[in-house]
Amino acid sequence: MKKPQSVLLLVALVVAMFTNAGCVPEKSDDAATGKVVEYSSVGDSNEWFVAFARELETEAEKRGYKLRVRHAQAKIEKQIADVEDIVSGQPDYLILGPIDTKGSARALNIAKDADVPVIVVNRDIVGKAGEDFVTKIYSDFEWIGEKMAEEIHGAFPADAKQIRVVELHGTAGGGNTIGMQSGFRKKMAEYPNMKIVASQLGDFRTDVAMTAMENIITSGVEFDAVVCHFDTEAMGAMLALKAAKRKTGSDPSKGEIIIVGNGGTKDGLKAVKAGEYHKIVSVTPYYANQVFDAIEAHASGKKLESYIRVDDIVIDKNNVDEHMDSGF
Amino acid sequence: MPDSDTPAKLLASANMQHATGGMSFVKAHSMPFFFLALIVLNSIFTPSFLSIDTLDNTLRQAFPMMLVALGMTMVISSGGIDISVGAIMAVSAAVTARIFALSVLATTPVSVLLILWMACAICCGLLAAGVCGLLNGMLISKFKIQPIIVTLIVMFVARSVAQMILGELPLSLMGTRFEDLGRLRILGAPIQVLIMIGAVAAMLFIAKKTVFARRVEAIGENRRAARLVGINIFRVTVGVYVLCAVLCAIAGVMEAARGGRVDAGRLGMFIELDAIAAVAIGGTAFSGGRARILGTVFGAVLVQLVTVIVNMNDISYHYSLILKAVVLVTAVWAQKDK
Question: How far apart are CA A320 and CA A327, in angstroms?
Fold first, then answer.
């Protein structure tokens, strides 16, 4: 390769790097005044992560912390590299949103070696509280799974012969997917008339869930309810069912398919209000206060629980209006 | 590389292909046979497989990948590769959706004005994709940077631009007329299938009847020789990447319409891998040369068919990956040595 061209290539690469990392703010000079907290986000463009990061930023500002966010774009290698970068700056705390239960555990070691305390958020990770990280704070996905099973069961009359459920699950291997699946199955074991007739990847994406739903409908499998691991999947399922002229709603006696999902997005809440989406078991992104409470408690030398639970609620037609504003 | 092939060698290999008749008919047409076998097997094992709905699903779902793969076939035929396809889909969908959503027309009933506005938005999306293609082609031919590096850079840039256009959040198109576009059927045929037929016909025409395709092939076979016989490498390369980008744009816009939302970070993610697989199954050589359009069409349908089979038989995710690998390996093996 000739010289000018390699220079051009280099310039282009640098440009590419900057446009890619444009969201990382410059380190401010007055960092010494407040405590510095770094957040390594999954960095998915999913609404939930955006809402969580915003909430964290607001809370940090309120309490006088310097917060920097790095988006890993759902790539584990990027998250590891981000954390390597972060610990070299010696922040006071690292908030880690693990991409993968096992894969992101390496980030814990890196932080441990640099003596940066870690607060785990969003999902589970492999590691020991008090040793590898300070504490874990996120929704109880087992509980969400159980609740979803309960709400599906509750939508049918007590003497219903059978409740056949299609499950559109989230990204395989994710702590939230695993939690919701196991909670759902655990609760379902209590209901002898309920069974899963198909369990396919929805990947938290509308298009993937829609494709899966279309194919399941065509396969002729009979089902009465659909459980989705996120609102985006529920939207895909609803689009596919609508196209197949199947009604969705809350009344199985009218032949309506019961859709219960995990979420709380604006689109999801609108669909609940419209009566097309039976119930949402929330997965709230609004728990930045709990994260900073934990940081402050740890900083003042208090001993913390190994897991701090984030409380979620069930949203249906009756209370959807009061939660409309918290849609993300 | 075919650079070292002497005319005599090429002639000999061509003769060999023609000389083998009879039983090798199956071998020569192994791809359709493999395809047929898969369909026969599934009509036995998969419930309701032999139905018009399965065909409908498969074609509609294969649509974005098929369009991308058609473009990719020409790119690979020219000896290049384009991994920016998914990002180009995202940027064109983002531009189209953002412009479309600007107007209050978005949720009004269908009218001439609405259709004009939608067409205008889509044209802007196509234009944005065209710019990406132009950038790809220019960097590759003028500055002689490896296609994989150039398209990697364009991938980053286009994805970032798409995210900047939409802000951080995905843009919901639920309840707008744009969402209806994704479900539009004309005389019972989904719009995706109609566009697909048009695109395949156009690409077949380009690949078989135009001088452009000959030039693309010539560059893919032997770039130096192509230049020596007076082919304008710059123009042809830019043409190939712009063509590919425009096909990606159509795929991106229709995907946005299908799902009723544009997630700039996710739309079209990893589609380059499926598209490249489709081209490989189709038999277009990665060292450049003849573009096998129909092969790619088969390849794209086959790749999507795996997902359809997985969904219809309720095969769990982990096994589905193995099934995909087995089908792809068999398919690639079936069409080799041709």
Answer: 10
Nearest CA to B317 out of A173, A230, A261 is that of A173
Given this model, what pLDDT does residue A14 score? Answer: 54
A219/B312 touch (CB, cutoff 8 Å), yes or no: yes
Q: Kindly report each contact of residues A302-307 with a partner whose C-beta sits within 8 Å and lies 24 or more positions away, as own/partner.
A: A304/A129, A304/A134, A304/A135, A305/A135, A306/A129, A306/A130, A306/A135, A306/A136, A307/A129, A307/A135, A307/A136, A307/A137
E strand or H helix at B261, and its extent? strand B261-262
Number of structural domains (chain A) is: 2
CATH code for the domain of A263:
3.40.50.2300
Same domain, A106 and A162: no
Looking at residue A260, its amino acid is V
In chain A, residues with a C-beta closer than 8 Å to the C-beta of B260 are 206, 235, 239
In chain B, the residue whose alpha carbon lies closest to the alpha carbon of A265 is: B172
- What domains are defined for chain B? 55-335 (1.10.3470)
| Window 201-260 of A, Cβ < 8 Å to B | 201, 205-207, 210-212, 214-221, 232, 235-236, 239, 243
Angstrom distance (rounded) from CA B304 to CA B294: 16
A125 and A154 both lie in a single domain:
no
| Contact (CB<8Å) B260/A200 | no
Q: Give Cβ neighbours of residue B178 (< 8 Å, ≥ 6 apart).
A: B97, B100, B101, B106, B118, B256, B257, B260
Residues 6+ apart with CB under 8 A from A274: none
How sure is the predictor about A174, in pLDDT bands with cuts at 50, 70 and 90?
confident
Other C-beta atoms closer than 10 Å to the C-beta of B82 total 33
Q: Does A13 touch chain B (CB under 8 A)?
A: yes
Residue of B nearest to A14 (CA): B153
pLDDT at position B4 is 46
* Each residue's pLDDT tens digit, A107-164: 999 999 999 999 999 988 899 998 999 999 999 999 999 999 999 999 999 999 999 9
Q: Please report residues of A whose CB lies closer than 8 A to that of B313.
A: 219
Structure tokens at B208: 């078989």
Measured in angstroms, the CA of A104 and the nearest CA of chain B are apart by 20
Contact B47 A73 (CB under 8 A): no
Task: Identify whether A266 is part of a domain.
Answer: yes
Does B157 sit within 8 Å of A15, measured CB to CB?
A: yes
Choose from B253, B312, B320, B324 for mutation: most chain A CBs within 10 A: B312
The answer to whether the Cβ–Cβ distance between A219 and B170 falls below 8 Å is no
Minimum CA–CA partner of B266 in chain A: A45
Domain around A182: 141-284+317-326
Q: How far is B31 from chain A (nearest CA, A)?
A: 24
On chain B, the residues whose CB falls within 8 A of the CB of A12 are 139, 145, 153
Tens digits of residue pLDDT in A22-78: 444 444 444 445 799 999 998 877 889 889 999 999 999 999 999 999 988 888 899
Task: For residues A169 and A266, state if they share a domain.
Answer: yes
Selected for mutation to probe chain B from A19, A78, A167, A235 (highest B CB count within 10 Å) is: A19
pLDDT, residue A28, reads 44
Mean pLDDT, 10 residues at a time, chain B of 338 residues: 46 47 64 84 89 93 97 96 97 96 86 93 97 97 94 96 90 90 92 97 96 95 93 96 98 94 91 94 89 93 93 92 89 73
What's the confidence (pLDDT) of residue B2? 43
ipTM of the complex: 0.84
Q: Given A13, A169, A200, which is nearest B311 (Cβ)?
A: A200
CB distance A97 to A121 below 8 Å: yes
pLDDT of residue B34: 83
